[in-house]
């Protein structure tokens, strides 16, 4: 049978545990049938250890008479398997001598022993005798091992239920018998005063007669013995002298009730002469002719103890059942959570595969097309544009993954500075306007008119990233209509805030997905009915940034009509409008300003080495290429006139950090710029600490590299 089938059987049996949890006997029958169908055993025996540590047969399938021929051998085999800690497949030829002899005596070749262990206590074992088909036995053993704990709990509960039912049945029969005896006693007592006197002296229960004031008129020796008084002492006493549950006034009221009703039967507590308290059952009848009350008293102390013990056992069983139900509930929740996690993982992996392969297809495909002869200049530029666009898309995916990693590891830092919100929104509007118009949509920016609201203290780069992610999503999920974004001031008793929004007329988000979309790798359409670009990280990053900046983010959406994303940032109004700082504009790179440099490129990747060489060929008179950290150190030692080292961090034999440290031991003048594809927080600091002058992350931008070199080498 395939694993899928076993999983189906496992789930079916676990569901039956819940369905038949209040009827362990019925579940035992179901379980026996399922095991027999699954394994193909001719006989299934459930053996248990009772409270006296004796082994007994709890259940046999097919059903046998009380004593059957091989019962003793089966019990011996069961006791032998109690030492097993896991499910065992027993073969006559592979077993020890004792087990082999037992199997020979039973005239079978194979059996399976399932130890039943609940709460680290041996309950018994299940024996599957005379296996008809051992094919796929490893899978069968695995399934039975997974179910052995459930088997143990159910069979233990079934045994407890059976013991409890037997005890209740015995006590019920005793009580009914005792009740009949009491009724017979009372009838005989009423026949005549003489018969009553004889019963008084011979009754097994206590007997007394009291007047309407509660004074003892007559008692028998059983009542005296029960209470530890002599007859003479009791005839000087009242009911209130021995009654615990009632005060003297309550006893008087009770007597009046008996006079009115003619009889009563109740339980109470009496104090013995030695101070010990006993539980009693009292059956009293009014004798109106003599104005007396005749009572039979039974000492039920032991019965009460038994009832208390029974109640405690019942509560214990109920508690165990509740724990079992709770465990089952936890298992169901864990199963659902695991299934959801697996579904999310599968969706994410499929999405990431698509997001990486798609731009790679553009890069590799059009790079291959560029090799074809006869391309026009316009075609070449078009292909190069597609390659650049695909590379930028792949870089965005990588940056998103790096950002979420920084956030989760606590490495993402907040850099607060004065930020002009209006300028920021204007820039975002100008940036996205061409893309929105190309898609046939309308983009609208609405902002506050108060100049004092323009400047806030926040992290301008994270604010830009939040707005960018939200507007990208709006463009992605809006096939037609419009997109509007802006902000306004929300007054508060504590701290006022700026509330930003991005509103679209797109496809909307289902209600059950509106919280999930802020989780990692989640898109609103997880079932991929409408697959769209993106790794599902943008909103998770935005949420993290908003919370780092002291705000909150949420969405209001109606499926088919559109969505509005809101987020807030703390805001303290300025008393006057401040001039926004001028952006530094990088001057164009003039390669003639550089002197001809001798540059060493330390890079083990041939493509990267070639690319960097092409970037710097106009500013150098000699380029030295090495691939390992050891080669860098050797080249620098043998050629002390090297002006600049472009040091890759990850190289064979010795990494860039260690190579830099060794170089600084004999050459402190050469400029070293670290280059790395890690691009994580702290990489720049590690490079500077190792002895590098500066740092640039991959993919390397030509202009940024030349500007960085220009910083250190001008004519």
Give a written overview of the molecule.
- The chain is an alpha+beta fold and 715 residues long.
- Helix 5 (137-191) runs antiparallel to helix 10.
- The protein has a 5-stranded antiparallel sheet with strand order 2-1-5-4-3, sandwiched between helices. The chain has a 5-stranded antiparallel sheet with strand order 7-6-10-9-8, sandwiched between helices. The chain has a 5-stranded mixed sheet with strand order 12-14-15-17-16.
- Mean pLDDT is 80; it is low at 524-533 and 573-586.
- It is built from 19 helices and 22 strands.
Rg for CA atoms: 45 Å
The whole-number mean of residue pLDDT values reads 80
Spatial sequence of strands, sheet with the most strands = 2-1-5-4-3
Q: What is the molecular shape? A: elongated
Report the portion of residues in β strands. 15-25%
Instruction: Give the distance, in angstroms, between the N- and C-terminal Cα atoms.
Output: 80 Å
Summarize the structure.
The protein is α+β, with helices and mostly antiparallel strands. The chain contains 19 helices and 22 strands.
Task: Give the tags.
elongated; 19 helices; single chain; alpha+beta; five-stranded antiparallel β-sheet; 48% helix; 715 residues
Give the helix/strand layout.
Elements: H1 3-19, H2 24-39, E1 41-49, E2 55-61, H3 71-81, E3 88-91, H4 97-106, E4 110-118, E5 121-131, H5 137-191, H6 193-202, E6 206-211, E7 216-219, H7 221-227, H8 231-234, H9 248-261, E8 263-271, E9 277-287, E10 292-299, H10 301-369, H11 377-409, E11 417-420, H12 421-438, E12 442-446, E13 455-458, H13 460-476, E14 482-490, E15 497-504, H14 538-548, E16 553-558, E17 562-570, E18 597-602, H15 606-616, E19 620-626, H16 629-638, E20 644-648, H17 656-664, E21 671-676, H18 683-690, E22 694-697, H19 702-712
Parallel strand pairs: 12-14, 18-19, 18-20, 20-21, 21-22
Antiparallel strand pairs: 1-2, 1-5, 3-4, 4-5, 6-7, 6-10, 8-9, 9-10, 11-13, 14-15, 15-17, 16-17
Helix pairs in contact: 1-5, 2-5, 3-4, 5-6, 5-10, 10-11, 11-14, 12-13, 13-14, 16-17
